[in-house]
Amino acid sequence: MDLKKIEKVLAKEPPFRLKQVKKALFQDLIENWNKATILPQNLRQKLSENCPISESKPEKILTSKNNQTIKVVFGLKDGLKIESVLTKHKDDRRTVCVSSQVGCAIGCRFCATGQQGFKRDLTSSEIIEQTLFFARLLKKEKEKVTNVVFMGMGEPFMNYDNVLEAIKILNDKEGFNLGARRISISTVGIIEGIKKISQEKLQVNLAISLHSPNNKLRSRLMPINRKYSIEKILAAVDDYIKKTKRRVMFEYLMIDGVNDSEKEAEKLSKILRKPLYFVNLISFNPIGHSQFKPSAGWKIKKFKDILEKSGITVTQRYRFGREILAACGQLTGRIKNGVNPV
Ligand code: SF4
Questions:
Q1: Residue 51 among the catalytic residues
Q2: In the CATH hierarchy, which fold is given to the domain comprising 54-324?
Q3: Is the CB of 99 under 6 A from ligand 1?
Q4: In the chain, which residues have pLDDT < 70?
Q5: Neighbour tally for 31: CB within 10 Å
């Protein structure tokens, strides 16, 4: 679904046609142009011939036992594959986790996508199509997508322009009409991206994948830290907060014996004790033959207590979709008998 192509086809039509098309695509969630009965037959025909609604095909749909998580493997038109995940929270949130790239060049040691290498950036249409697929699925249950997070495959700020274009389409009142505050971007700390997004007139949420309070360990877990050190990232985040007055989330994967000691919690407390910072602790999700293991529950609790005692707000991400490999860091687009081969 390429909006630019659609605009070209509609170039000679009166302006209200574009509004009708956007309503059909993003609110009525049509799957083929014949369903857009408000449009004249010849226009529907022209759109069908030139502007396919979905170029990404859902090839595999996996649902967790408790029905709370649905992972979809999409085949793209060049044969590559990506994954996206819908999480149905106990409250009314219905969150779609979208991919922004096929594979990822960042190579975080704990991440299945990172082990796969980088193939290419996704177009804004390919990003939007992931969301629309779940929106159609939820519509059948009389529900809606309430949140979109860029936490799937890829580093969103390495594909800044397409990610931003997708966000604008999702946020468009005549289109999908999802509030910017319901959209979150998670980055490893690409400084240029943090600077750019602070200048956009969009109130999207920013999350930083930190995972360590010191550079030595962080560089071991995330080699990108050699370029974007913790100090540089925090300076960029402070600047972002100054401009936007928005809170920033720091994501911290709890990996057994690696980054979950009391010493690390204390160091983290020191560097993150600032008014608009908050921490999200995430239990590590084992991937393939990974050397890493998740921290024990009691260790996570202790870590959390230390942060909270120092005045930091801490949230904890629950383990969604682990058995279908739909959890954080487990997306690879390759599934063999339900297992991501990493
Ligand atoms: S965690 Fe994110 S940035 Fe790091 S390798 Fe995985 S997809 Fe890329």
A1: no
A2: TIM Barrel (3.20.20)
A3: no
A4: 287-289, 318-342
A5: 13
